[in-house]
Amino acid sequence: MKLISIAAAGMRNELGKDNDLLWHLPIDFKRFKTLTSHHHIIMGRKTFESFPKLLPNRVHIIITNQKDYTAKNCIVVSSIQEAIKIVKEQEKAYVIGGGEIYKQFMPYIDEIELTRVYGTFDADTFFPEINLDEWEICFQEAHETDEKHRYKYTFETYRRKQEK
Questions:
Q1: What CA–CA distance (Å, rounded) separates 10 from 6?
Q2: pLDDT at residue 135 above 80?
C-alpha cells in the first residue's frame, strides 16, 4: 500500500484559515479529483466538515477524538493507526488534511503530491516542512496565472528517499 499526502500550500506552507482554503485553483481541484477518485481518503473531522457534501467515488475515513461522532457513509476512527489498518490492503490511500493530520501521518507517508502556490497568505493551518534529506522531488510542472488562476503554481511530487 502506498500512502500519499495531497495538499496545496503557499510559499510558507500555508494551507488554510478558519477551516477554508486560501485560493481558488480549478486545475488543482481537477488534479485532486483525478488522483483521489476510487481511493480511500483520510482526513480530520474539521476537514470533513468543511466539505459541502461527500466527495464522489471515494471512501471517506475521518479521524476524530470525539467519541460519539458519526458521519453518514463514512468510516470514523480515533487514531491514525486505525486509519492505516483500514487502508493497508489498498493500492493507494490519500491523506487530505488538515494540518495536524498531515503532521501526524508524515512518518508513514510514501509520497507527497503538493501544489505549491506562489504567494504568501494569512493562515492558521500549515503543511509540515518537507525535509529534502528525506524526500526527493521526482516531478514538477509549473503553471502561470490565467483568467481562472490568480496565482502561479507548480505541481510537485515527492518520494521518500530509499535508505542505502
A1: 14
A2: yes
Report the candidate in 139, 133, 141 with the shortest Cα–Cα distance to residue 162: 133
pLDDT in tens, 2-51: 999 999 999 999 999 999 999 999 999 999 999 999 999 999 999 999 99
Tell me what pLDDT residue 164 has: 56
How is residue 36 annotated by DSSP?
H
Q: Is the pLDDT of residue 151 over 80?
A: yes
Of the candidates 12, 1, 15, 2, the one whose C-alpha atom is nearest the C-alpha of residue 112 is: 2
Cell of 157: 511530487
Extract the C-alpha cell encoding 75: 468510516
Query: Which domains does the chain show, CATH number per domain?
Result: 2-160 (3.40.430.10)
Cα of 69 vs its chain's centroid, Å:
22
The secondary structure element, H or E, covering residue 42 is: strand 40-44
Q: Round to whole Å and give the CA distance between 76 and 93.
A: 15
Residue 114 and residue 133 in contact, taking contact as beta carbons nearer than 8 Å? no
Query: CA 104 to CA 86: how far, in whole Å?
Result: 17
Q: Is 15 left (phi over 0), alpha (psi -120 to 50) or beta?
A: alpha
Burial (CB count <10 Å: 0-12, 13-18, 19+), residue 18: exposed
